[in-house]
Sequence to fold (230 residues):
Amino acid sequence: MTTPRLDITGHALANASRARMLCAMMDGRAWTNKELAADAGVTPQTASAHLRHLEEAGLITQRRSGRCLYHRIAGPDVAAMLEHVARLTPLDHLVRAQRVRAAGLAPLRRCYNHLAGAVAVALCDALITRGALRRVDGGLIAQPSRFWADLGLAMPEAISLRPSFARPCLDWSERRDHIGGALGQAILEHALAEDWIQPAGPRRGLRLTGHGRDTLATVIGCDPDGLSHA
Fold:
């Protein structure tokens, strides 16, 4: 029996600069060496060494376009793992200060390719309450419902009933599920296309537009801006 090399992943994560780079890439975009170096507060040379370490651990991939080399999270499985690790971060007195600084991300942000934060958790809860989503064996199954029309999403039955279509993703700030998988990605892409949300800040934070606030309030039954978070 082959023993998983958890030590390789753990060693890759056990550095504050590499952790900051991974958090930056959790917005789903590809970043250059210089961008990640500036975000992590290190030199480009140091960033290059860290990025090689992350690539060797299988956490990121690289792609060259023209003269630039771009780096991004290796895929949804890696993104889900990082989100779960963030949730497990101990809440000691030192980390609490960091969570206060990160509070701007808690209401609404990108979790790789889907929405996260208090608003995303409320949306997941509302769709389950209204029968548009159903929990089955720890997963989520999309069900026919008028609420998909309220969101402006077409839900072909053959697609929506696939177990992998909607996946629960445990939110690090709320400690409850938001919607991942193909459905989560579809909701994020639709929200961006319909101008419900816009980027907010240099990281993966998002903000609701007036149109987005009104649309989501219809589905979740309250003002999204009034939601509390951990």
